[in-house]
Design goal:
Layout (H helix, E strand, L loop, with lengths): L1 H7 L3 E2 L2 E5 L4 E10 L7 E12 L1 H4 L4 E13 L32 H21 L12 H11 L1 H6 L9 E13 L3 E11 L9 E7 L4 E6 L8 E11 L11 E16 L4 E16 L10 H9 L4 E10 L2 E6 L1 H14 L3 H16 L6 H5 L8 H4 L3 H5 L15 H5 L4 E2 L5 E2 L2 H10 L17 H8 L1
Parallel strand pairs: 5-6
Antiparallel strand pairs: 1-3, 2-3, 3-4, 4-5, 6-7, 7-8, 8-9, 9-10, 10-11, 11-12, 12-13, 13-14, 15-16
């Protein structure tokens, strides 16, 4: 087990191993891998592993495993006695930036250490990556057999038959069951794993599902030119307690379930991952005397005492070793306002609405001022008017007011603006004024339906 222990950096114990070279069958039972950060426990334990190895592929100095089946794998199981650690865990430094992961998660050091290793691995593989047309062709099984007949198996196995291909490849890996506290039983399926993904013939994939509707997937693509890696996590009704939130987190959530929608792409250089976190069944309060989303401490405290659900919209960017979280304050405040109104907390809803108005007002829109004054902007006016279709469909804008002005095409298809002389104008300048100002002539009273296609939405936007 020397090679396995060297890779794990800690003691590895196995109850039994059975290898048959004649038919290429391999089985292993009772494998325990010591957790380097916590030697009294195992990082993971495998009850039974079975696989078959292609003996023909061994002739090409290549181990190709069609399928590895693991019955049950447990995580963090306590050992009978502490295991030895051969390579201590190096403490990862807290990355610099406005988002400090240590302020949100209890096990931030382990998370940062893991993310740092992923970044280093991605960088290493990027250096080794070659386009498929640049790679030397691999010998086929038939060619290997033919060479073995001519040279003999020993000489053939020593020949340089395989060029620029992984030496170990697992076509498929399946783990039938991984029990995780509070989260249920997970199943793992992976394809095209190897000791050198940069030389893979196909992208490596990972799919993780659970009996509680968790659905996660990842693709590491070093094969296709300019491809980005992908990650998706859909997790409904996840106990917030299972996230391991730190007591430094500004909001103390004593009880809640979360729906996570995390879907984006990444590379060794950057992250582009939108995140939507819906929390429900929520009991919470603010910690300390600080506010949140620009609200003062007292208002924040009252709001979080009176809500049972909220939706947080954010983007995860930066790098794998230094992830940054940018919360969309506009979307989040708009959601809080609606939640408070539904709960009959009109005064708090107005406070959240007032802050939302400030957030929207703080985002400049280049060129709009000139356009409203009747001057053509230096850029294409259509650029400023993109996406009005969403607004006309009654959808609230995001935190960026520029999103309100999207879609000149849709806007210009609407009825024109009535001019003082009674005529009709479809001048983009007049239409834009209607989007921002509304048409008071066509709206009378609170209950009267407006003919202005955006009037109803403007009431919501203006709070």
């Amino acid at each position: 087990m020397t090679a396995v222990e060297a890779a794990a950096g800690a003691e590895v114990n196995v109850e039994g191993v059975n290898l048959s070279l004649t038919d290429g069958k391999f089985t292993m039972e009772g494998m325990q891998v010591t957790d380097r950060a916590n030697p009294t426990h195992n990082s993971y334990t495998i009850a039974k592993l079975s696989t078959s190895i292609s003996m023909t592929e061994l002739l090409t100095k290549r181990v190709v495993i069609d399928k590895i089946l693991i019955g049950e794998m447990t995580l963090g199981e306590k050992r009978d006695s502490p295991g030895e650690v051969y390579r201590p865990v190096e403490e990862a430094e807290e990355p610099k930036g406005p988002f400090n992961i240590g302020d949100y998660f209890e096990n931030s050091k382990q998370i940062l250490d893991y993310l740092k290793k992923i970044k280093e691995y991605l960088e290493e593989q990027e250096k080794n990556k070659k386009d498929p047309e640049e790679r030397s062709p691999a010998e086929t099984k038939e060619q290997a057999k033919e060479l073995a007949k001519k040279l003999g198996y020993l000489k053939a196995s020593a020949a340089n038959l395989l060029v620029e291909r992984p030496t170990i490849t697992i076509r498929r890996l399946e783990v039938a069951k991984i029990p995780v506290d509070q989260l249920g039983n997970f199943k793992v399926e992976a394809t095209e794993l190897s000791n050198n993904l940069a030389l893979n013939e196909k992208p490596a994939t990972l799919k993780v599902t659970s009996d509680k509707d968790f659905d996660g997937s990842a693709t590491l693509d070093f094969v296709n030119k300019d491809a980005r890696h992908a990650l998706k996590i859909i997790a409904p009704n996840l106990p917030v307690a299972a996230l391991g939130l730190s007591d430094k987190c500004p909001v103390d959530i004593s009880e809640a379930l979360a729906d996570i929608d995390f879907n984006g792409t990444f590379s060794s250089k950057d992250l582009k991952m939108p995140l939507v976190l819906k929390v429900h069944g929520m009991k919470s309060a603010m910690r300390g005397d600080k506010g949140i989303f620009g609200l003062d401490a007292a208002t924040s405290q009252e709001i979080f005492k009176n809500i049972t659900e909220m939706t947080l919209s954010a983007d995860v960017h930066g790098t794998m070793a230094n992830p940054q979280l940018k919360v969309d304050a506009g979307k989040t405040l708009a959601g809080l306002k609606d939640t408070l109104l539904a709960a009959g907390k009109a005064q708090l809803a107005n406070m959240a609405g007032a802050q939302l108005k400030k957030v929207l007002a703080d985002v400049p829109i280049p060129g709009v001022g000139d356009l409203l004054d009747g001057k053509l902007p230096t850029s294409n006016p259509a650029d400023i008017l993109k996406g009005a279709g969403d607004l006309l469909d009654g959808k609230l804008p995001t935190s960026n007011p520029a999103d309100i002005l999207k879609g000149a095409g849709d806007l210009l298809k609407t009825p024109g603006v009535t001019k003082p002389d009674g005529g009709e104008s479809k001048n983009p300048l007049d239409l834009l004024k209607r989007v921002t100002d509304g048409d008071p002539k066509e709206t009378e009273g609170d209950d009267t339906k407006t003919k202005d296609p955006v009037g109803g939405v403007l009431d919501k936007i203006r709070l």
